[in-house]
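Researcher: Good morning. I'm working through a list of sequences from a screen, and I'd like to move beyond sequence-only analysis. For each chain I'm collecting a predicted structure so we can compare shapes side by side. This is the next one on the list. No need for commentary yet; just the structure.
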Amino acid sequence: MTETERARAAGGAAGRVELLVLCTGNAARSVMAGFMLEYRAEELGLPVQVATAGTHVVAGQPMSIRTRNALDSIDELSSFLTSHHRSRQLGTDDVDRADLVVAMEADHVRFIRRTHPHAAARTATLRRLCRDLAPGPTPLAERVAALHLDEVELGGWEDVDDPAGGTDDVYVACAQQLWGLTEELAARLS
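Model: Good morning. Structure tokens for this chain:
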């Protein structure tokens, strides 16, 4: 068992949970959900570290104005520092470090199953985690393992629609949806 695997089994490094939030371009959904999860973890006092990445990225791009405006539409996040974001391509190190990979759609889970099969058992969509991850004091690794995520059949109901190419209203609607979902996931992580 590697050091990372031992830490994961014990509930993360020094009790900290490493989340990797994944979408396609690391430009909208994963960015918004990542900042939201950081905010919620801080608000709840959860020892959570959040990273974001994409499956098909133009690396190093700053957050778009539509994504920033969508985040600003959430009152609690309007003063949250978001300027440091730069898009990142998913790498093996990201996957290996993560206790849980939170995907925005079923295709992202399929991507992990194909390219990083060792992480399939700890990769799920945000919607599936909100529905199926048991809350409680049991270590996260045990609760995730109980879901058998590497074997579940994926469905279209799991997707958070990509706002890319949409109007400001589409981005804001996506942010509102993610705000509710991240609240549910944070409650299940605590």
